[in-house]
Write a structure and sequence with these properties.
mainly alpha; two-stranded antiparallel ribbon; 17 helices; 4 strands
Length: 413
């Protein structure tokens, strides 16, 4: 939006400003800083507003957890409202919304944010524990399906758009799996995209059980996936790292930076003891954003490594519930996993910091697999052969927007 306004301006300095803002790195930095300041400066007033209206009732399925969390009773929740607002504001101001990947991300942000708000309101206004599992899942699938279709329409026109990056191995084309049929590849793309977006959304939501836990882990995963998406949109970096080349994916750096800034601002108030909780209003869209970035960059499998903490939290619930139904016995003291450690007597702040460390290590390991699995081939778009079968880099596009030139005119026990 800001780019459009400057492009339409008639001042003498508009060209120079537009040229600078054409750089994704600058706009990403402004988006991150802006969303952080927005959350920190307006946070106290938002928290007071939430405190008058939305106070978290502590009623888990575990009596011991209810005792441990008794001091959290009536803490204002739905803090995700100002996280979503900060991200949306930064993206609308500094992002290129006509980019299909950005549009898909905004659909996920607002759609899952609204769904989470409905779920939170049901918990707050009734005795029910939120939406029914079936209706909540249906809403998530509907939002993810819209985003997936937007991505498919764009990616079907990109040479690497229907590829799937396998860490340590390389990229495999979905077209090869279905005999070269683009329509059949699309039918593989859609369910995979929906699964990743919905799965990541729920995994982050399950992790949101202790002060600062989900927020801190989200920052590491979001930073790693944002970096990969930016590299995927850069011809030279994509070739160097062996990533699928997705033109325009670098624009997602604005989204990722805005998300990181907003979550950092939220953590300012959510660190122990929390002044506000994220709620489904924030956890669902933040998880969805990580998922949609992974799908856009064709890094669904890498997300399993980068988001290892979220995977572990989700698996702990699946294993706990499934094993209990089969044997009537439990694997963990309580699920998700962070509650297992809490019931074991580990201090809440220690659990949170250790999970943050684990999230950081997962992000580092995930990024390390990129170059580790890279092999230079004659098909790499940003390199060319020279005499003697050596390889040299040739000039490729910068991180400026493609085609834009400066012109004037919960718990289970």
């Amino acid at each position: 939006m800001l780019l459009w306004l400057l492009d339409s301006a008639s001042t003498l300095d508009a060209d120079a400003v537009l040229a600078a803002l054409a750089k994704i790195t600058l706009r990403a930095a402004l988006a991150g800083l802006g969303s952080f300041l927005l959350a920190v400066v307006l946070g106290p007033e938002w928290i007071r507003w939430l405190q008058r209206r939305f106070r978290e009732p502590i009623r888990s399925g575990s009596a011991e957890l209810n005792r441990l969390h008794a001091d959290k009773q009536a803490t204002p929740t739905m803090g995700g409202l100002f996280v979503v607002a900060a991200v949306a504001g930064a993206v609308l101001l500094l992002g290129q919304i006509i980019n299909p990947m950005m549009l898909a991300a905004v659909v996920v942000l607002l759609g899952l944010g609204a769904l989470g708000a409905v779920d939170d309101l049901i918990k707050l206004r009734t005795s029910r524990n939120g939406m029914t599992a079936r209706s909540k899942m249906a809403g998530q699938i509907a939002v993810a399906a819209v985003a997936a279709m937007i991505l498919l329409e764009h990616h079907a026109t990109v040479p690497d758009g229907l590829s799937l990056h396998v860490p340590l191995i390389g990229s495999a084309s979905l077209l090869d799996w279905v005999g070269g049929s683009a329509s059949a590849a699309g039918w593989l793309f859609l369910p995979l995209a929906i699964l990743v977006i919905v799965g990541c959304s729920n995994a982050v939501n399950l992790t949101d059980g202790l002060d600062g836990l989900a927020g801190g882990c989200t920052i590491f995963a979001l930073a790693a996936m944002t970096g990969v998406a930016y590299a995927s949109g850069h011809a030279e970096w994509a070739a160097y790292l062996g990533l699928p080349r997705i033109p325009g994916a670098g624009e997602l750096a604005i989204l990722g930076a805005a998300g990181i800034g907003a979550v950092l601002g939220f953590l300012w108030f959510n660190c122990h003891p929390a002044q506000v909780f994220l709620g489904d209003t924030g956890a669902l869209p933040l998880g969805g954003l990580i998922g949609v970035i992974a799908v856009a960059a064709r890094q669904e499998l890498l997300l399993l490594i980068v988001g290892g903490v979220f995977v572990a939290e989700a698996l702990s619930v699946i294993l706990q519930v499934g094993w209990y139904k089969i044997t009537r016995r439990r694997i963990f003291r309580c699920a998700p996993l962070h509650h297992h450690f809490q019931l074991a007597g580990t201090a809440e702040s220690k659990i949170v910091i250790r999970f943050w460390i684990a999230a950081a290590l997962c992000a580092v390991v995930g990024l390390a697999t990129l170059k580790a699995g890279t092999t230079v081939t004659p098909h790499s778009p940003a390199i060319k052969p020279t005499h003697g079968h050596a390889w040299e880099w040739v000039a490729g596009p910068t991180d400026a927007i493609g085609g834009l030139k400066p012109t004037r005119g919960h718990a289970w026990e």
